[in-house]
Amino acid sequence: MRERGREVAVIPEFARPLVDQITAAQIYPAWTLAPAEWVVVHALIKRSGDDMLAGAAVQAAQRARNGVAHARYFLRAWQALPPAPAPGTIPAAAPTGPARASNVVPFPSAAGTGRVAQSADYLAQALADMEAQQ
Predict the structure, then answer these.
(1) How do the domains of the chain map onto residue ranges?
(2) 7: which strand partners?
(3) Burial class (CB in 10 A: 0-12, 13-18, 19+), 44
(4) Which of 19, 57, 65, 123 has the fewest C-beta atoms lying within 10 Å of its C-beta?
(5) Cβ atoms of 97 and 106 closer than 8 Å
(6) How far apart are alpha carbons 61 and 59 in whole angstroms?
(7) How far is CA 86 from the centre of its chain?
């Protein structure tokens, strides 16, 4: 569309939740995409979902040295995203610590105890493991 010689972004209804999430993150690119680009955006929304696309856009905008002037900047990153997980899929639990037979010492947490106390705990655990094996 034209208004006084300027292009005006017309955002399709299917893209409104995505655009709103990106705008809520205080990222304001131009949304003057060609009809073929909107078709691609629509397919990406169906495949990966608004939340995943908005998260990728926010991350890309934070990495951009000179900011993001146009939404076209996000297309390549969006195309590299995986499909959204199937409904009802439960994410795998992240490991909470090293495996029992591991020789990896976990990085101390910021709110954790001091090194001496951690060392004493590790030694006590190692002694308990040795006793359990005998």
Answers:
(1) 2-79
(2) 2
(3) buried
(4) 65
(5) yes
(6) 5
(7) 17
Closest among 91, 86, 81, 7 to 43, alpha carbons compared? 81
For residue 19, the tally of other CB atoms under 10 A from its CB is 19
pTM confidence score: 0.61
Tell me the residue type at 117.
A
Q: Per residue in 54-85, pLDDT tens?
A: 999 999 999 888 889 999 999 999 999 999 98
Give the DSSP H/E element, type plus range, for residue 2.
Answer: strand 2-3
What is 52-88 written as a DSSP string? Answer: HHHHHHHHHHHH-TT---BGGGGHHHHHTSPPPPPTT
Exposure string over 77-112, b if 16+ CB within 10 A, otherwise e: ebeeeeebeeeeeeeeeeeeeeeeeeeeeeeeeeee
Q: How many helices (H) and strands (E) does the chain have?
A: 5, 2
